[in-house]
Each structure stands twice: as C-alpha cells, then as structure tokens.
Amino acid sequence: MLYTIRVALTVALGGFLMGFDASVISGVVTFIEPEFSLSKIELGWSVASLTLTATLAMMVSGPLSDRLGRRPVLKIAAVLFAISAVASAVAPSFIFLVAARMLGGLGVGAALIIAPMYIAEIAPAAVRGRMVSFNQLNIVVGISAAFFTNYLILRLGRSDLAWAEALHLGEWNWRWMLGVEALPAIFYFVALFAVPESPRWLVMNGRDEDARRVLEKVADREQAEADIGAVKASLQAEQSTDRAALGELFRPAMRLVLVIGIAVAILQQVTGINSVFFYAPMIFEQSGIGTDAAFMQAVLVGLVNLVFTVLAILFVDRVGRRPLLGFGLTGIALCMLLLSYGFAAEEMNPQLILVGILGFVASFAISLGPVMWVLFSELFPNRVRGLAISFVGLINSAVSFLVQLVFPWELENLGNSLTFLIYGLFAIVGLIIVMRILPETKGKSLEELESELVRQ
Asked: What is residue 137's predicted lDDT score, i.e. its pLDDT?
C-alpha cells in the first residue's frame, strides 16, 4: 500500500502544477490590466488562453498516452510547465504573455487527463477513489500555493528588505508570481523517473511480465495475476478493431456512461468555480476591501479548498460518489444564491460575501472537484478509456474557457448579483439531472463497472 501511495502522490504532482499554473493568474490580472491597457475581454483572454490549449491537449493526450505510455506524456507536460513559467515571467508584451500561457496550457491538459488515468490503472479497487483523489488534492494544494505565493510576493515587494529590492519584487511582482512555477516543474520531471509505467498500459501492449512486476508491488502475486487476466478479458471482448476510434464513444452501448460523463463535465465548470479561483482578488476587491485584504482572503479560499478536498478523499470510498455530489451541489446552489443577495443589497456586506465564497468553495471541493475525476477514471471501458476521458475532459475544459473568458465582461455588464444568480440556477438544474442518472460506482473493479454500465 505504501508503494501505491508513493507512486500515486508522485504522479499527482502534475495536479499541483496544473492548479498552480491555472490559479497564479488570479494575482497577475490586477497588475497586467493597467500595464498592458487591456479591455475586459482581453483581460478574460489572459486568464482563459491557458484553458484553450489545455482543451486541445486533452483531446490528444489520451490517445498519445495509449501509444507512447502514460509516463512519457507526463514528462513532456513537466517540460512544458517549466518553459511556460520562464517565458511568462519575461513576457515583454500582452501577446507574448498569452502565447507563453498557452504553451503551459498544453501541459495542463496532458497532466489533467493522464495523471488520474494512471492512478486509476495502478490502484486497487478498494482504494481507487481515494488514490485518484490525490490528483485533485494536489490540484488544490497547487491552487493554495499560488494564492499564498502571490500574497507573499505582494507583501515582500512592498517591504524594505534589501534582498526583495534587489530582486525587484515590487517592480516585477507579477513576473515573479508567474516565474516561480519553474522550480516545481523541474522537480516533477526528475521525480517521474522513479515511477513505473502503468500496468494496464503494459498489458495492453503485450508486456505482461513488466506489468506483473509492477502489480506485485501493489498487491500480492495472486491479485496481480487476476488483474492481468481481467484486463486481457476486457480487451478481448472488444477486438473488432485494432485501435479505438472516436465513433466508438457514440455506440448505443456507450450511451449511459457518455451522458453521465458529459453532464458532470459541463456541470463542474458552469457553476462558476474557475471564475472564483482565477478572479478571487478581483471579486473581493469589488466587495469594498483593499488590495492586500483581497489577496489575503484569496489565501483563505485556497485553504478552505484544501481542507474540504481532504475530507472528500476520506469520504469518497466510504460514503460514495453519488451522495457527495448531491450534498455538494445543494451547497453550491445555496451559496451562489447567498452571493447574489449579498451583492444586490443596498449596503454591501464584505463578510457575507466572504462566507458565500468560502461556502461555495467548500461545497465544490467535497463534491464536483474530486468526484468528477474519480467518475471519469471509472465509467469508461479499458480499450477506449484514454479517448473517452480526453473527450469529456475537452468538453469540461471548453466550458471552463468560456466561463473564464466572459466573467470580467459579465461583472461589468450584468453585475455581480445576476452573474452569481445564473451560476446558482445552473447548480439547481445540475442537481436534478445528476440525481436522476448517476449510479453508485464505489468499491467495484473497472471490469465490473464495464459489464454493468456498458451494454454489449
């Protein structure tokens, strides 16, 4: 078990880089808007551009990992993270900054898809949900780290410490915010050399002995043989073609799992989580507090996200996926309605808005955040898993891109109250849909779920 945890945590460092890379921009937008004289849509583009290329990377990273292996694709992602961080930090113009961020988006898309896939393929069924949730845990740790380093750089830049002045932390604050990511990216690349290839990928490519050696470190010899046999039986059941094609996802047998995957993928983003994560200081400033206080409250957002993600990891294999989603979506809807009321009040109450934001983040972190990726790793048959996760991940990322892009425009033209009301209504509709179509998947092997959910 310790070996499985070590490997899962190492691979899930890709989630840390994804969370850091995506959320660090929340502190940057305050400074680049006046420096580059950006319109609201351009400001939205500076945030959403990373997600655009992440969306494209999601579509190819699954099939690419089926061909090259899970580990090589994660190494490529680590290199992209490092190059993007350095290029973003030295960006001389808005266009250059966007191009650098888009390069990092390719790493985000690959890590977001392949890391949970790898973990699901190496973890025993009894703890698979918890292991896969390590990736979401690392994403939120990365988000928290980004909020904290942004605040720290902001404060140090305003101090009279000699070394802070020598590094120009005040003058180049947003550049340092973006550049520090290069350090964990390099560490991730090196750490991946200590991780084996996915045992299921090895079996799929005829390397049974290599897969057996990996699986015997995860479980005993008997279970390793059983797992290899189960993967082979699953693959042999679908030998009509040598390689999975996109059309296979739309076969009648796949209808239920595909509808569930698409519904959850859209719901996770359309309720506004990345509007909060990527614009948190801006939202808090609009509640009437200063810049330093806004950055400090963004740190609280990261901490609440971390705490409730840990709770989700503890409960996902005990309570189950379906109850967590029901509880979380209810909380999301209530908190968004509270935010809508708070911003509509004649005398805006910053404390009420803070409670609404933190409650929303807590509700998301214990449900849609980690549970979506657990479901993605479980729902789809072995032979098309890489392609299917890429497809629904692409939809998730495309919705995220649109939400991020238009959020500054929405605040300016619709107002905060109506914007958060719309997110709350989406959560209510999503709660009804999910409770109607989602079965429970906890404690079942991937092969058992395939036989139950995919009608041959």
From this structure: 79
Cα(268)–Cα(371) distance, rounded to whole angstroms? 10
Average confidence (pLDDT) over 115-121: 86
For the chain, how many helices (H) and strands (E)? 22, 0
CATH of range 2-195+237-453; options 1.10.8.80, 1.20.1250.20, 1.20.58.340, 2.20.28.120:
1.20.1250.20
CA distances from 439 to 223, 381, 388, 390, 436 (A): 27, 16, 19, 22, 9
Query: What is the structure's pLDDT at 404?
Result: 92
Question: What interhelical angle do 321-344 and 368-379 show, nearest 10?
Answer: 140
Task: Tell me what pLDDT residue 105 has.
Answer: 92
The token pair that represents 290 in the structure block: 């200063």
Question: CB of 276 within 8 A of CB of 357?
Answer: yes
Q: Domain ranges for the chain, please list them.
A: 2-195+237-453
- Residue 198 is classified by DSSP as P
The residue among 99, 87, 260 whose CA lies nearest residue 185 is 87
- pLDDT given at position 446: 67
Q: How many CB atoms lie within 10 A of CB 264?
A: 26
